[in-house]
C-alpha cells in the first residue's frame, strides 16, 4: 500500500506539471529559400510584392534580398502578376534561389519570378543587401540575414 501511495503521488506531481512548449523544427529539417532582385535599371523604383502560396511575404526592392525557411513540401511563388509563377518542391536541408525579374511593358511593367541554380543565386546574392524592415509583410517567416 505504501508503494502504491508513493507511486500515485509521483504520478499526480508529473501530471500537474505543465507540458513543454511544442518544439520548433530542427534547422536541418527545413528548406531555405533566398528570394532576391538583382540591381537593374528597369523599374528601379517599383517594389512588387512577393507571395508564397498566395500569402504576401515582402515588397521586393531593387538590389535586395530576403530569406525564408520552410517545412518540406510544395510551394508556389509569384510576384504581382498572378498568372506567372513557379512551383518549388522544397526538400529538407536544401537551398533554393528565386529571382524576381522586372520587364518592360505597360506603364507598371511586369514582374515574374524564376528559380535559378545555386551557383548563380549565390553569385548574384553576394552583392545585394537585405530588404528594408519596413518592406517586410510576413514578419514571422521573412528573415533578414
CATH architecture label name: Sandwich
Shape: globular
Q: What's the total helix number?
A: 2
Number of domains: 1
Percent strand equals 35-45%
CATH topology: Immunoglobulin-like
Strand count, sense and closure of the main sheet? 6 strands, mixed
Helix content: 10-25%
Distance between the termini: 61 Å
Class from helix and strand fractions: alpha+beta
N-to-C SSE string, H for helix and E for strand: HEEEEEEEEHEE
Low-confidence segments: 1-21
Number of strands: 10
Q: Rg from C-alpha positions?
A: 22 Å
CATH class call = Mainly Beta
Determine the mean pLDDT: 81
Structure description:
The protein has helices at 2-16, 118-125; strands spanning 31-37, 49-52, 55-59, 64-70, 73-78, 85-90, 95-103, 110-116, 129-130, 142-143. With 145 residues, the chain is an alpha+beta fold. The chain has one domain (26-143): Immunoglobulin-like (Sandwich). Helices cover 16% and strands 38% of the residues. A hairpin with a 6-residue loop joins strand 5 and strand 6. Residues 1-21 have low confidence and may be disordered. The longest helix is centred in the first third of the chain and has 15 residues, at 2-16. Strands 1, 4, 7, 8, 9 and 10 form a six-stranded mixed beta sheet that branches.
Task: Provide a short characterization of the protein structure.
With 145 residues, the protein is of the alpha+beta class. 16% of the residues lie in helices and 38% in strands.
List the topology elements.
Layout (H helix, E strand, L loop, with lengths): L1 H15 L14 E7 L11 E4 L2 E5 L4 E7 L2 E6 L6 E6 L4 E9 L6 E7 L1 H8 L3 E2 L11 E2 L2
Amino acid at each position: 500500500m505504501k508503494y502504491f501511495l508513493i507511486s500515485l503521488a509521483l504520478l499526480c506531481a508529473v501530471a500537474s506539471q505543465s507540458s513543454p512548449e511544442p518544439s520548433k523544427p530542427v534547422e536541418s529539417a527545413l528548406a531555405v529559400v533566398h528570394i532576391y532582385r538583382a540591381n537593374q535599371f528597369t523599374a528601379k523604383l517599383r517594389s512588387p510584392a512577393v507571395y508564397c502560396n498566395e500569402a504576401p511575404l515582402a515588397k521586393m526592392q531593387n538590389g535586395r534580398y530576403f530569406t525564408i525557411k520552410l517545412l518540406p513540401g510544395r510551394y508556389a511563388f509569384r510576384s504581382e502578376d498572378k498568372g506567372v509563377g513557379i512551383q518549388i518542391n522544397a526538400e529538407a536541408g536544401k537551398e533554393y534561389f528565386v529571382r524576381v525579374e522586372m520587364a518592360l511593358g505597360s506603364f507598371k511593367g511586369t514582374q515574374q519570378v524564376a528559380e535559378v541554380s545555386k551557383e548563380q543565386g549565390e553569385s548574384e546574392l553576394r552583392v545585394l543587401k537585405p530588404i528594408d524592415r519596413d518592406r517586410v509583410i510576413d514578419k514571422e517567416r521573412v528573415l533578414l540575414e
